[in-house]
Amino acid sequence: xxxxxxxxxxxxxxxxxxxxxxxxxxxxxxxxxxxxxxxxxxxxxxxxxxxxxxxxxxxxxxxxxxxxxxxxxxxxxxxxxxxxxxxxxxxxxxxxxxxxxxxxxxxxxxxxxxxxxxxxxxxxxxxxxxxxxx
Length: 134
Known about the structure:
mainly alpha, 66% helix
């Protein structure tokens, strides 16, 4: 008795997220179909022109916008950015450097410092526990 291997599929929204693109900007056939894991791997390995263009020019989903601006997604929302932005719009925001963006970047710096401090503290505690067991 042989069983046929079925391909694992995902919704277009999941595939778009994994590809780092804004779903609504993808071609209709991508939005309306399902994507197999093999198709996703092929898209990542050899992106078609539409995917290269989206990654370069946008519009970009909020996680990508936040990353390009050096802020959190929540920071984007606090700054009033709730929609996808193009690379050109992101560059314009960087150029304008509004107060909210400077503030949110400073918040991110503090968050990263605190995360590093906590990580270091946990490492020290782990080392103490390991040394006490000897």
